[in-house]
Amino acid sequence: MPAQAFSTVRLVNGSTGDPVLYLDYPGRDDAILFDGGENDKLTKDQLADVQCVFITHHHVDHFVGLDRIVRANLDRDKTLHLFGPVHTIARVYARVKSYEYPFFPFMKLEIEAHELDGATERVGRFGCKTKFAPPVLSEKPWAGPVCYANDHFAVEAVAVVHTVPCLAFALVERGGHHPDPAKLARGVLRGGPWIPEALRLLHAGAAPDTALDIQGGRFTLAALAAQYFTASTGARVAYVTDTLFADELKPRLVELARGATRLYCDSFYAKVQAKDAAKHKHMLTVQAAELAKAAKVEELILIHFSTRYAGRYEPLVAEAAAVFPRTRAEI
Fold first, then answer.
1. Most Cβ neighbours (<10 Å): which of 89, 95, 103, 169?
2. 319 and 241 in one domain?
3. Do 65 and 213 belong together in one domain?
4. What is the pTM of this model?
5. What is d(CA 327, CA 109) in angstroms, rounded to the nearest whole number?
């Protein structure tokens, strides 16, 4: 299994609640969320660390947590990026504008809402500095699949088939050095701006004897790399929910999930409910397993079980595991 750099990968509400996946990286303010559903199990500090939210669609169970995300970041001097399908800009702006704000000088949050619509990416930017005046809009061609990238990871998006416009996502880590949570916990240095600076130098190929002044001491890049970082080949985490497993879609989903360390996948219905799955455009447990098998993922985590199965989820896991043994759920 490829080494992965993130210190926290948390299916916030387990396999039975609103699908929300939180990924955080040590020493960097760039946590991400897949979906904006109920997130009261995350602290304000955890949400304030979020850099990007990737919204699959605008049904309430994937969007109702947006208020807490915005509230946690109001006092931050940052840009919060939100990605979703068509109508994301209007719906995010409407939610933000539904409240009154005092607009103190320290409130510097800017919001960039991105909507991916076919071959076009539209962006709406608004924020505290303009008292959430109507978004400044722009658009550009979007060839996909990458919709966001920074120095450490990229996120890919593909359109899926649901009752409303909907996307699936995959996070792809870049290979190279990453902060090691265990090493950071054991080390004498506290977290701080030195971590992204050391990462920048490591990724730029700086000389091993390059020295950094940190918290009253002087440390070489080689020593920091050995004591606080781990070399990683990177990892892929795929997130697929609320979609019909349609024949025309299968190649795109397989490519999105190919070789993933983890595939978090919609498993709304048992095999016997195939007609309901087709009607409401959700996946069966066995279809999630078929996707995992075709994409040769390391592990399948079933998500978004229908409430009709409350208290009897084990047969759903067993049904998928019969097709793809490395299957589990978080109950």
1. 169
2. yes
3. no
4. 0.87
5. 40
Q: Is there a single domain that holds both residue 26 and residue 145?
A: yes
Count of domains forming the chain: 2
**90 and 208 co-located in one domain:** no
Residue 56, domain member (yes or no): yes
Residues 6 or more apart in contact with residue 62 via CB below 8 angstroms? 18, 19, 35, 36, 37, 55, 56, 241, 242
Asked if 25 contacts 31 with a C-beta cutoff of 8 angstroms, the reply is yes
Q: Parallel, antiparallel, or unpaired: how do β-strands 229-232 and 110-117 relate?
A: unpaired
Among 5-9, 139-143, 316-320, whose mean pLDDT is lowest?
Answer: 5-9
CA-CA-CA-CA torsion for 263, 269, 272, 274, nearest 10 degrees? -90
Q: pLDDT digit string (tens) for 100-122?
A: 999 999 999 999 999 999 999 99
- In order of 110, 128, 166, 207, 281, the CA distances from 36 in angstroms are 18, 21, 13, 42, 20
Q: Which residues contact 323 (CB under 8 A, 6 or more apart)?
A: 286, 289, 290, 293
For residue range 33-71, what is the model confidence (pLDDT) as tens digits? 999 999 999 999 999 999 999 999 999 999 999 999 999
Token pair for 118: 């076919």
CATH number reported for the structural domain that contains residue 91 in this entry: 3.60.15.10
Residues 90 and 195 grouped into a single domain: no
Range of the domain at 241: 8-174+234-329
CA angle, 56 then 43 then 328, to 5°: 55
User: Does 61 share its domain with 167?
Assistant: yes
Cβ neighbourhood burial of 78 (10 Å; 0-12, 13-18, 19+): middle
Same domain, 94 and 118: yes
**Cα of 175 vs its chain's centroid, Å:** 18
**Rounded mean pLDDT of the chain?**
93
For CA atoms 46, 152, 83, 125, the dihedral sign is positive
Query: Pairing between strand 300-303 and 120-127?
Result: unpaired
Name residue 127's amino acid.
Answer: G
